[in-house]
Amino acid sequence: MWEEEIEAAASALREAKRVVAFIGSGFSAESGIQTFRGEDGHYSDREIATLTHVSTFESGDRARMLGWYQGRRDQVWTVEPNPGHHALARAANHGEYLIATQNVDGLIDRAVDKAGSSPEVIHLHGSILEVACHDCGDRRRDDQMDLGQQPACDECGGRMRPGVVWFGEALPEGAFERSIEFASSADACLVIGTSGIVYPAAAIPEFAKRAGATLIEINPNRSELSSLCDIVLEARSGEVLPRIVERAYG
Ligand code: BV8
Ligand code: ZN
Fold first, then answer.
1. How far is the CA of 33 from the centre of ligand 1 (A)?
2. Average of pLDDT values for 176-195?
3. What are the tens digits of pLDDT across the range 113-122?
4. Residues 193-209: tens digit of each pLDDT
5. Is the pLDDT of residue 175 over 90?
6. Residue 87 CA: which ligand is closest?
7. 220 pLDDT band (50/70/90 cuts)?
8. Ligand 1 centroid vs 144 CA: distance in angstroms?
9. Lining residues, ligand 1, CB within 6 Å
10. What is the whole-number distance in angstroms between the Cα of residue 70 and the centre of ligand 2?
11. Three-state SS across the chain?
12. Residues with active-site annotation
């Protein structure tokens, strides 16, 4: 299955000098991490959708929001990168790769460490492995803090939160700009496991397209970006990305 698409995707990667990989929550689905949209996504519970908006933290049910995030933090230490993460990390040994991930789970970073490759990884929506103070901005990686207890900041007594970007908040300084700068001179763009709905992140593949890159999507479902892509594999990334990378680089 997908023989033709795998061959086409592999030769596009093989010929590419610079590859941008735009990643969404579906890339971590096979590690057991829930996606946001789609039938079994977080947002199938409408109430959860409010828990990723900064207004809920500032003037809504903060306890519920922090409890939900702590539950996701607790889970992320217990899961592993899947074959898709490892394949992308290995691929980055064969060219200049920038991985622009919307995911906050740290799984691609673990796979890259294991592969010993050195892609540039841009965390467009931050990281739940980090905690930050909403009031003074103090931020650090912390796997002990229980956000469900609504801890106060050691520095200023302010409100601690997960180190992620919520709706209504700006992306980390320079993250989007660096991603589109690289995408604007990429030869290939992987679009993996994203519904392509959230902006400005979802604009990144458009910059690669404009630069003449070959766009390769891996997603079992159609997304908002499918029509932009040259090669569309309606498949799970953990299943087909290893085959593409193997075919491309041996
Ligand atoms: C900003 C927090 C400005 C982190 C998240 C109207 C029009 C356009 C835009 C807007 C608008 N109104 C408001 C906006 C802006 C808004 C936005 O885009 N809204 C959308 C929804 C309309 N964006 C923002 O607010 C952003 N900030 O614009 O700032 C600004 C500037 C200055 C000062 C102040 C403000 C901030 C966006 C950040 C949102 N943060 N979450 C967290 O908790 O994780 S959103 C959430 O959606 C996650 O971050 C997630 O990463 C992101 C995108 O979702 P996907 O990754 O695509 O995941 P999804 O579940 O949707 O899809 C999964 C896909 O995987 C599916 O297609 C599925 O088929 C596929 N799949 C499943 N299994 C597999 C698979 N694929 C492959 N293999 C598998 N096995
Ligand atoms: Zn503080």
1. 15
2. 98
3. 999 999 999 9
4. 999 999 999 999 999 99
5. yes
6. 1
7. very high
8. 27
9. 24-26, 29-30, 35-38, 41, 52, 102-104, 125, 164-170, 193-195, 197-200, 218-221, 223, 236-238
10. 19
11. CCHHHHHHHHHHHHHCCEEEEEECHHHHHHHCCCCCCCCCCHHHCHHHHHHHEHHHHHHCCHHHHHHHHHHHHHHHCCCCCCHHHHHHHHHHHHCEEEEEECCCCCHHHHHHHHHCCCCEEEECCEEEEEEEECCCCCEEECCCCCHHHCCECCCCCCEEEEEECCECCCCCCCHHHHHHHHHCCCCEEEEECCCCCCCCHHHHHHHHHHCCCEEEEECCCCCCCHHHCCEEECCCHHHHHHHHHHHHHC
12. 125
> Which residues have a beta carbon within 5 Å of ligand 2, which is an ion?
133, 135-136, 138, 153, 155-156, 158
* Digit-coded pLDDT (tens) for 95-144: 999 999 999 999 999 999 999 999 999 999 999 999 999 999 999 999 99
